[in-house]
Fold this sequence. Notes:
CATH topology of the largest domain in chain B: pyruvate-formate lyase- activating enzyme
CATH superfamily of the largest domain in chain B: tm_1862 like domain
Helix content of chain A: 10-25%
CATH superfamily of the largest domain in chain A: Nucleotide-binding domain of ferredoxin-NADP reductase (FNR) module
Number of domains of chain A: 2
Order of helices and strands of chain A: EEEEEHEEHEEEHEHE
Helix content of chain B: 25-40%
Radius of gyration of chain B: 22 Å
Oligomer: heterodimer
Shape of chain B: globular
Largest sheet of chain A: 6 strands, antiparallel
Radius of gyration of chain A: 17 Å
Bound molecules: iron/sulfur cluster
Structural class of chain A: alpha/beta
CATH architecture of the largest domain in chain B: Alpha-Beta Horseshoe
Number of helices of chain B: 17
CATH architecture of the largest domain in chain A: 3-Layer(aba) Sandwich
Strand order of the largest sheet of chain A: 4-3-6-1-2-5
Strand content of chain A: 25-35%
Distance between the termini of chain A: 29 Å
Largest sheet of chain B: 7 strands, mixed
Amino acid sequence: MEGTLRHFVQSVRPLTDATFVIRIDRHGFRALPGQHVTLGPHRSATNREYSLYSSPEAPYLEFLIRARPGSETACALQRAQPGDEVDLAGPYGDFLIERPADPGRRYLFVATGAGIAPFHCFVRSYPSLDYRLLHGVATLADRYEREAYAPGRYVACVSREDGGEYRGRVTDYLREHPVETDRLCYLCGHSAMVARVYDQLREQGVPSDNLLTETFF
Amino acid sequence: MKVAISYPPIVNARGQVAMVSQNRNVQYFKIPTFLLPIVHAQAATWLRDLGCEVRWDDGNAQRKSFETWYEELVAWRPDVVVFESTTPVMKFYWRLVGRLKNDLPKTVVIMTGYHSMRQPEETLRACAVDVVVQSNHVDFVLRRLLPYLGEQADWRTACTIEGLFIRVDENVWRSTGTFKRVEDLNLSPDIDRDLVSWRRYAFENGNFLRTPGTYATSVIRDCTFGKCTFCRYNGPDLTFSVRSVERSLDEYQRLIEEYGVREIFDDSGVWYRGEQARAFARGILDRGLHRRGCYFGFNTRFGYMDEETVALLAKANFRFVLVGLEAADEETLLRLHKGYLPHQAYRNLEVFTRYGLHPHLTIMVGYYWQTAAQLELTVRTVRDLMLKGLARTLQVTLCTPLDFTPYHLECQEAGVLLTDDYDAFDMSKLIVRTPIPHEAYYQAIRDLYGVATDPRFVARQLRYLTSGRARDWEFLFRYGWRALRRVRNHVYNLTSNG
Ligand code: SF4
């Protein structure tokens, strides 16, 4: 049965002071790219939902997590040591690419912060995807592992620093670079960003049937 | 434009009234129980603000008979009537819409709600409804649609507002496309309490420890978690939207200062968690609202509240915490996608009660796979939690597939549904095939409610209520009496089944 296997931490890979990738052993756990799980330290009182960051085919499971001050689950996972047990349940969710092999299908992925996790999973799982990824971040350091994306496909919209691919928010970028209306658009991030970008893409003529959204706090 | 947002009194053969607006399920109650439908109340407020003449038409809360309610609505001659659907009352609505369209052929009838949003064509086929709203953001959709109806004579063919099924003529309808799943809830107004006659909902509601109580304009729509398979807040068509902490705090302040409410409950599927929950509690403390004799409460799930947050909430005068345990065996929790394991329930309840919160557990029995051992474990665990004082009150219901939730679809696929008559989906009896006789589940409900009369439980409740931390005799009498009436209502239903 799903979710009843025991999972142990293999490593915690820091990306910034607050953001890290936790790798746990897979133990036969199955998920689809874009799905998420609930994850928390073993026997703790709390858990949170995290999207799969690694390809479901990888021999391990990875999750990209940002630990804000006071977020008990994320901070505890950040402190985890190899061999520590975690509680994992799932997978859940319908934020999926239905026909990744469809020729000619183009995608737009829009994420803020750690909302990039499902898109990382998509591009790892489906290497031939024709996509453009907009990543809204505050600083250059928040462009988590951007070398994972094919050259020219990843655009960081950096709001507080110069030196990135684009200075400004994703909404600014989209205003200057309207999207082709036949793209399938996937939005993942904070509720307010998702609502704003959705409106913007609708105004640019993207049909609502081509917009998929996933929110988190 | 004259718009009625209508909740007809729906009375079953036993004289019980359907609570359609209950946020997750519909139940029939013999005793009066009035629940304010939050999203529709926001819609009413927004439409009124836009200049519509709005009739808040809750025949239940206004204690009208069906015929009185109907005659008054027809006499008012609305341009638009909005209903809210859910599975067990669909057949009623289909008949009602037919009658209404007969008496008021020019009136546009709009069906909202979780049943018809997932099967819009069924309702368009079954009755003369004009529009089915597919979005859970009823306020946002009506706010776009109604001005459009007023301006565009050809709206049936021309309207492009997404999330609608529109009748073009008797046998033809069209979809306007997928609805916007995430809305900025800060754009929707706070409920106008006077417009919805808030005091009608302020006393008869099992979730209030103190009265007058009221529901806050929800901070989350529908549920932050949204994965439990039986819950209407789960589905590929849904995600959640959030309202800002400051905006909600302003409303709490107004409710306390201008309306004198003594309890505010937020019925969001799952309320804030983490930093937002702490910011909310700090806001209550900063504004001194915790010293105004008002309790606060919310729904949460196991796994969302850490100790620091709970401590802060308790300091801010939060009390009633409604949390769905559902079952105590690991297999059922995993199959339901609850996302936690039994040990987490204990850990969370220990933290809640350590800080004087009042956990109210909801439990369900009668899952189509539930074995005698699983049922027994649930009964034993819940009794243990109650006797240890880790939960203060509880509500037990029969798990009933509704509104095409994943559990509903699973029951259909597994071929375990015993009926397809929607009238039977009213939670009064089990409608799925189970591995043990239905009577075993009914008995489990009686056993679970029976804990209320266990001398150990009564002694513990008295100790709690006389403790310095929670001396609240008003609660003992008022809440205790209401709880007893609720138990009688459930036992009445089950006795009739037995
Ligand atoms: S936690 Fe589960 S049952 Fe409760 S409102 Fe959310 S999805 Fe529904």
